[in-house]
Amino acid sequence: MSTFDVERVRADFPILQRTVGDRPLAYLDSANTSQKPQVVIDAIAEHYGQHNANVARAMHVLGAEATEAFENGRRRVAQFLGAARPEEVVFTKNASEALNLCANTLGSRLGPGDEIVISVMEHHSNIVPWQLVAERTGATLRWFDITDGSDGREAGRLDLEAAERDGLINERTKVVSLTHCSNVVGTINPIRKIADQAHAVGAIMVVDASQSVPQMPVSVTELGADLLVFTAHKAVGPTGLGLLWGRHDLLSELPPFLGGGEMIEIVRMSGSTFAPPPHRFEAGTPPIAQAAAFTTSLDYLDALGMDAIATHERQITEYLLQGLQSIDGVHILGPTQMVDRGGAVSFTIADVHPHDVSQMMDARGVAVRGGHHCARPLHERLGIQSSTRASSYLYTTRADVDALVEALTWTVDFFTGRARKGRA
């Protein structure tokens, strides 16, 4: 498209034509999962209807077609990320499994005295695996704190000054694993800067890009990552498919994560040898239809243009931030200005539980999420139990945001009687 036409985009997504009761659906939960365009739905159906077979095993036409579709998905992901070769892409069942793969294989290199660095803003999937590895190996888990800035730009960012002062990344650091974009406060972290610091002490840089890859152009080489993880279902793709990219030389050094068929070279009762990457990390029947269909998802995103998607995301999130700030009693977590910020916007209303907010919003056709968003440590750091989150994507319109503001104003008035401040 020469220009980004959000109404034309919306026409590609059948679920957005739904109503909730007598109201149009305003879907603002894309940080949780994105909706799927018809071409991706068709691609899944077409694979199962015409090409269904297992990969790399069956010596017949369907097996060859399924294998080609699966491996074409690998090539397409590599191209999308700017990877050097398809063999650097590993398919898993979700981003959580991919992060567990990183933690468990890198854990083979760790021992007492070694340090792993994460941050307090991580999703549980980038906390718990490292906790388990630290417990098993005797390594020490350390983390970046966040800033308490109140000027709308600096709140909820990694506290780089404190990290530097405390020597957080040092000669004992073996792994740094950080989110590229927070799924709660929306902060986009300076991964390249931190990766350079990690590499300077010989550490491996792992990046959870689950929120960033769908929203903006991401190049694994420019980012400075050694391993990078994301998930298809947040990028207009199917559920059940996680993606791990890794430098091929690093993947070649790492041990298997799961054992089974396809990840082996030779199996004897006395021992086994293992396939080279990526198959070393893909035991058993993989997510074949999902990988095949994800090719269509990436084609769809590229047809729109990732730069155009990022611009739309910035514009609609800025409109959302303005709308939330027009409602008395709403407190936004993290940056309130569109500077190094993604599309997830979490907020609280004093004395109103986020689950109540979400249910009230749902009654008016607005889909948001309430809870700790699999980031409980961050909520504890912010001094709250949970929050409500609204998150936009490439199909989000101003009308969706207006519906949220109207529903939230009604909700605040219902619980507190506070009046609206008026929109800028």
UniProtKB/TrEMBL annotation:
Annotated ranges, domain Aminotransferase class V: 27-404
Recorded catalytic activity of this chain's protein: (sulfur carrier)-H + L-cysteine = (sulfur carrier)-SH + L-alanine
EC number: 2.8.1.7
InterPro entries the UniProt entry points to: Aminotrans_V_dom, Cys_dSase_SufS, PyrdxlP-dep_Trfase, PyrdxlP-dep_Trfase_major, PyrdxlP-dep_Trfase_small
Gene3D superfamilies with a match to the protein in the record: Aspartate Aminotransferase, domain 1, Type I PLP-dependent aspartate aminotransferase-like (Major domain)
Enzyme class label: transferase
Cofactor annotation: pyridoxal 5'-phosphate
GO terms for biological process, alphabetical: cysteine metabolic process
GO molecular function, one term: pyridoxal phosphate binding
UniProt keyword terms in alphabetical order: Lyase, Pyridoxal phosphate, Transferase
Database matches in NCBIfam families: sufS (TIGR01979)
Family classification: Belongs to the class-V pyridoxal-phosphate-dependent aminotransferase family. Csd subfamily.
Protein's recorded name: cysteine desulfurase
Native species: Propioniferax innocua
